[in-house]
Automatic annotation (TrEMBL), chain A:
<keyword id="KW-0472">Membrane</keyword>
<feature type="transmembrane region" description="Helical">
    <location>
        <begin position="54"/>
        <end position="74"/>
    </location>
</feature>
<keyword id="KW-1003">Cell membrane</keyword>
<feature type="transmembrane region" description="Helical">
    <location>
        <begin position="80"/>
        <end position="100"/>
    </location>
</feature>
<keyword id="KW-0812">Transmembrane</keyword>
<protein>
    <submittedName>
        <fullName>Cytochrome c oxidase, subunit IV</fullName>
    </submittedName>
</protein>
<dbReference type="GO" id="GO:0005886">
    <property type="term" value="C:plasma membrane"/>
</dbReference>
<feature type="transmembrane region" description="Helical">
    <location>
        <begin position="24"/>
        <end position="42"/>
    </location>
</feature>
<keyword id="KW-1133">Transmembrane helix</keyword>
Automatic annotation (TrEMBL), chain B:
<keyword id="KW-0812">Transmembrane</keyword>
<keyword id="KW-1003">Cell membrane</keyword>
<protein>
    <recommendedName>
        <fullName>Cytochrome bo(3) ubiquinol oxidase subunit 3</fullName>
    </recommendedName>
</protein>
<dbReference type="InterPro" id="IPR013833">
    <property type="entry name" value="Cyt_c_oxidase_su3_a-hlx"/>
</dbReference>
<dbReference type="InterPro" id="IPR000298">
    <property type="entry name" value="Cyt_c_oxidase-like_su3"/>
</dbReference>
<dbReference type="InterPro" id="IPR024791">
    <property type="entry name" value="Cyt_c/ubiquinol_Oxase_su3"/>
</dbReference>
<feature type="transmembrane region" description="Helical">
    <location>
        <begin position="162"/>
        <end position="194"/>
    </location>
</feature>
<feature type="domain" description="Heme-copper oxidase subunit III family profile">
    <location>
        <begin position="43"/>
        <end position="240"/>
    </location>
</feature>
<dbReference type="InterPro" id="IPR035973">
    <property type="entry name" value="Cyt_c_oxidase_su3-like_sf"/>
</dbReference>
């Protein structure tokens, strides 16, 4: 029992200290700077079409991942918390699909009834 | 917050790795977020709800932009600035992005110093973070006044689809409000740390509870979230 309590205490102590080396934070900070610079360059060089959109999305996801995983310490949390927080926003993608379909329909009706289309 | 309630029965269960651990944490008749204090868990849940708020804003913007028959104004040109005679597309937004990322960096280091109970360094780093945040809000105020002077309104603008203005003011306005509240939050916590509240176990003015250095991490979660939202706004509104 004493052993178990010691184990529990250790567990709690470990839990309360999300402490990671400053070097890691500086590395992530640098990476975020570089990725932001890349996203800016996408616009600066005026890339268009699928290349532009995929690059923007890749840099966005990498930046978001770094912030959540390292700065917000999600990489070191138990899966119970990670999944509780990260899975629900994924369901927004369903909403996105619904609204894409809805927008296309609205665009179609506007073109059909206001006749301002090409 | 007072010390977490110890539940020995819960804590003695060995933690299994991977999905088995996830299942046992959720399935067991005990608190789910075992090694996370309530303060932190509640901040995460608040941030989850805020994710949906901003998600809906970005969705509304997407729907407006996809369904309009009028061309969308080119953000690259709308947010361009003339600096020393050079035409720089989107430069103000790029600088704002770097300012906000820097504030996230100093915040992460403040969390580290807080857990080392380095009172002085933590308070200074949090003040630097607040300063970066205030700079960001200042630049946003500049951007708003510039656009308003050029004739952008929630119901129209000189360059194209009327929905541009409403999306812009709503999304950046809500984000700016979040940054502003973050700065206030940072200043309050920095003051407590500077005064040594968490070393002397001084009771809080509002809750009458003793605080802990963990509040730095919780404040940090909020602050990083504000930066996270900006990543998405930058990609979808300014670059798309």
């Amino acid at each position: 029992m004493a052993h178990a309590e010691a184990h529990a205490a250790q567990h709690v102590a470990q839990a309360e200290h999300q402490q990671h080396p400053i070097k890691l934070y500086l590395l992530v900070w640098g990476l975020l700077f570089v990725l932001s610079a890349f996203s800016y360059l996408v616009d600066y060089f005026g890339l268009q079409g699928y290349l532009r959109w995929s690059l923007i999305l890749i840099f966005m996801m990498l930046k978001a991942g770094l912030i959540v995983a390292v700065f917000m310490h999600m990489a070191w949390e138990r899966l119970a918390l990670t999944y509780a927080i990260l899975l629900p926003p994924l369901l927004v993608l369903v909403f996105v699909a619904l609204m894409v379909s809805e927008s296309n329909y609205i665009l179609f009706t506007r073109l059909a009834f206001f006749g301002t289309g090409p | 917050m007072s010390a977490p309630i110890k539940t020995p029965a819960a804590e003695t269960l060995p933690h299994r790795a991977g999905l088995a651990g996830l299942a046992s944490d959720w399935a067991s008749d005990q608190r789910t977020f075992k090694n996370v204090s309530w303060g932190k868990a509640m901040m995460w849940i608040f941030l989850l709800s805020d994710t949906f708020v901003f998600g809906c804003f970005l969705l509304a913007y997407m729907a407006a932009r996809m369904s309009t028959i009028v061309p969308w104004p080119n953000p690259s040109e709308v947010f361009a600035l003339e600096i020393a005679g050079t035409h720089m597309p989107l430069i103000l937004i790029a600088i704002m992005t770097f300012v906000l990322i820097s504030s996230s960096g100093t915040m992460a280091m403040a969390v580290n110093c807080g857990y080392r109970r380095d009172r002085r360094k933590t308070a200074i780093l949090m003040l630097v973070t607040a300063l970066f945040g205030a700079t960001f809000v200042g630049m946003q105020a500049f951007e708003w006044s510039k656009l308003i002077a050029e004739g952008v309104r929630p119901w129209g603008n000189p360059w194209g689809a009327a929905q541009f203005g409403s999306s812009f003011f709503m999304i950046t306005g809500f984000h700016g409000t979040h940054v502003t509240f973050g700065v206030i939050f940072l200043l309050i916590v920095a003051r407590k740390i500077w005064r040594g509240d968490f070393d002397t176990e001084r009771r809080g003015f509002f809750t009458s509870r003793k605080g802990r250095y963990e509040i730095v991490e919780i404040t940090g979660l909020y602050w990083h979230f504000v930066d996270l939202v900006w990543v998405f706004i930058f990609a979808f509104f300014y670059l798309w």
